[in-house]
């Protein structure tokens, strides 16, 4: 049993399906009715040396993420870091010509400073610049130094310590018979990348297999060696994440934001959390941020993100909490709070966008 003061890691799951994957990485889960604040129940458990509290949003979007982070900070005053762990859309290809990296479905993107951005940039739809166009709205705070160090240390260790495949195995062992297969890797055949100019032909709910012409898609098998990966061996990519209240649903917009700001991932929550809280964003890629959404990859992408997050937690030293409930490293009776650090462009000492492949590690340019 842990009191609210013993939790030092806040884990935000924007969607219930992301929470279901997240709880599978607990080494120990606390009774559900014992982890609550002001009548709201959270999932609490232990991951390695950390006591982790998981909150799920009521609705999607930046402000809902901000509200949840604020409530969790209030109820669990010794949260030192937040992890925002979920699914998102990815750019299919990034990096310099000749040394481009491919993102494929099931891969993981981790927020990491790039160019003038601290790892997350906020977008919103600006009516004055034309319908549907997403406009850069502002920077968010960078990831705080010690959390960046954990990400970089983990990154430098490469695939051998990432252990996503091993963690996925352990997660599946916890599933009952009804859910066997829920987090299986859908495989390369079900990873279809449509041409940028070919829009989704059905309704939002229709699977592309039914409504879209396969002749306009390239399967992962046909995308060449850089897109190849073995079952349960997702690559981990480090770069900027574009965060917006509007879902990114156009290949053209995706490509433009990618070129202008080196964003490699699109989602709807991170900017809401990072403005006020120390946070690293971890996203499993379930689609290519175009009009061809489908649910086929969501569970697996949620699982690979959660598995990576567990590995990252293993790189963060235990955060001591004294018996009276303070974190030992802070002055007495001061909860661990984030001091925003708005120094963009200063994070780039040798850390560029890069990728850990299932087997090898390579830096970006
Ligand atoms: Zn489609």
UniProtKB/TrEMBL annotation:
Gene3D superfamilies: Nucleoside phosphorylase domain. InterPro entries: NLR-like (IPR053137), Nucleoside_phosphorylase_sf (IPR035994). PANTHER family: AAA+ ATPASE DOMAIN-CONTAINING PROTEIN-RELATED, ATP/GTP-BINDING PROTEIN-RELATED. Residues 325-344 are annotated as: Disordered. One of its GO terms (molecular function) is catalytic activity. GO terms for biological process: nucleoside metabolic process. This is Purine and uridine phosphorylase. It comes from Decorospora gaudefroyi. The lineage of its organism: Eukaryota, Fungi, Dikarya, Ascomycota, Pezizomycotina. Residues 327-344 have a biased composition (Polar residues). It comes from the Eukaryota.
């Amino acid at each position: 049993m842990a009191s609210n003061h013993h939790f030092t890691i806040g884990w935000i799951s924007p969607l219930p399906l992301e929470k279901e994957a997240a709880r599978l990485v607990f080494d120990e889960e606390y009774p559900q009715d014992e982890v609550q604040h002001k009548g709201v129940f959270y999932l609490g458990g232990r991951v390695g040396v950390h006591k982790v509290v998981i909150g799920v949003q009521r609705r999607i979007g930046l402000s809902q993420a901000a509200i949840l982070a604020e409530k969790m900070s209030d109820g669990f005053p010794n949260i030192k870091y937040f992890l925002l762990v979920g699914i998102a859309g990815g750019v299919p290809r990034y990096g310099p010509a000749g040394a481009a990296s491919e993102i494929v479905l099931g891969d993981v993107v981790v927020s990491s400073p790039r160019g003038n951005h601290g790892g997350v940039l906020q977008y919103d739809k600006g009516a004055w610049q034309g319908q549907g166009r997403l406009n850069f709205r502002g920077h968010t705070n960078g990831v705080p130094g010690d959390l960046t160090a954990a990400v970089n240390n983990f990154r430098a260790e490469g695939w051998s310590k990432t252990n996503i495949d091993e963690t996925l195995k352990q997660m599946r062992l916890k599933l009952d018979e009804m859910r066997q297969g829920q987090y299986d890797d859908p495989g390369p055949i079900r990873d279809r990348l449509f041409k940028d100019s070919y829009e989704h032909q059905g309704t939002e709910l229709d699977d592309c297999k039914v409504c879209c012409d396969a002749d306009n898609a390239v399967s992962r098998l046909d995308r060449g060696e850089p897109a190849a990966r073995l079952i349960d061996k997702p690559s981990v990519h480090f770069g900027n994440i574009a965060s917006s209240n509007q879902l990114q649903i156009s290949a053209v917009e995706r490509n433009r934001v990618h070129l202008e700001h080196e964003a490699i991932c699109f989602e709807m929550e991170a900017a809401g959390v990072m403005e006020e809280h120390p946070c690293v964003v971890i996203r499993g890629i379930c689609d290519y941020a175009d009009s061809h959404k489908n649910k086929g990859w969501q569970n697996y992408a949620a699982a690979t993100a959660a598995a990576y997050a567990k590995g990252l937690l293993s790189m963060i030293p235990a955060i001591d909490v004294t018996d009276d409930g303070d974190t030992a490293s802070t002055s007495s009776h001061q909860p661990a709070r984030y001091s925003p650090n708005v120094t963009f462009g200063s994070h780039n000492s040798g850390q560029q966008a890069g990728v850990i492949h299932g087997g090898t590690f390579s830096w970006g340019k």
